[in-house]
């Protein structure tokens, strides 16, 4: 009896689409949920059978170019060390750092620069 119950439970779990079990940030969930209530993973990941990290062009299709995003988060030129640097226009990487180094959709986002620095970026959606 226990084996039958276990088998039934396993089949039920396997029938749930894995993508819909993935954690998704609220602000993206609204955009990526279809009329059927299911998340359309292809919106970011494309049609690849094995899901991959989205290309920067996918992020840019909604958020604008990396230059646009850098301009939105630009810091005053005379701010000095009292203001954290522009996270989208790094002194080390310019605008070349991929979005997914900080912005992680299915886990808590992190500040990539904090591997060496201690920036807070309190307005960052985590």
Q: What does the model show?
A:
This protein has about 130 residues and is mainly α. The protein folds into two domains: about 15-50, no CATH class; about 55-125, Flavocytochrome C3, Chain A (Flavocytochrome C3, Chain A, domain 2, Orthogonal Bundle), CATH 1.10.1130. Helix content is about 35%, strand content about 0%. It has six helices and no strands. It has helices at about 1-15, 20, 25-30, 40-45, 55-65, 65-70. The chain starts with a helix and ends in a 54-residue tail after the last helix. The model is unreliable at about 10-20 (pLDDT under 50). GO terms for molecular function: metal ion binding. One of its GO terms (cellular component) is periplasmic space.
Task: For this entry, give a set of tags.
single chain, 126 residues, mainly alpha, Flavocytochrome C3, Chain A, domain 2, 2 domains, 6 helices, 35% helix, 0% strand, elongated
Question: What's this entry about, in short?
Answer:
The protein has 126 residues and is mainly alpha-helical. It is built from 6 helices and no strands. The chain folds into 2 domains: 17-52, no CATH class; 54-126, Flavocytochrome C3, Chain A (Flavocytochrome C3, Chain A, domain 2, Orthogonal Bundle), CATH 1.10.1130.
CATH topology of the largest domain, by name, is Flavocytochrome C3, Chain A, domain 2
State the oligomer. Answer: single chain
CATH homologous superfamily designation of the largest domain: Flavocytochrome C3, Chain A
Radius of gyration: 20 Å
Mean pLDDT: 83
**How many helical stretches?**
6
Instruction: State the separation between the terminal residues, measured CA to CA.
Output: 45 Å
**CATH architectural designation of the largest domain:** Orthogonal Bundle
Which structural class best describes the helix and strand composition?
mainly alpha
Largest sheet composition: none
Keywords: Electron transport, Heme, Iron, Metal-binding, Periplasm, Signal, Transport
GO cellular component, one term: periplasmic space
Domain Tetrahaem cytochrome: 38-118
GO molecular function: metal ion binding
């Amino acid at each position: 009896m226990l084996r039958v119950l276990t088998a039934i439970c396993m089949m039920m779990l396997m029938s749930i689409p894995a993508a819909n079990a993935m954690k998704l940030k609220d602000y993206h969930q609204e955009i990526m949920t279809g009329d059927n209530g299911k998340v359309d993973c292809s919106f970011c990941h494309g049609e690849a059978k094995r899901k991959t990290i989205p290309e920067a062009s996918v992020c840019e299709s909604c958020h604008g170019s990396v230059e646009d995003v850098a301009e939105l988060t630009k810091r005053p030129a005379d701010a000095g060390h009292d203001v954290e640097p522009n996270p989208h226009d790094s002194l080390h990487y310019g605008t070349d750092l991929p979005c997914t180094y900080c912005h992680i959709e299915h886990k808590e986002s992190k500040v990539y620069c904090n591997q060496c620095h201690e920036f807070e970026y309190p307005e960052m959606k985590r």
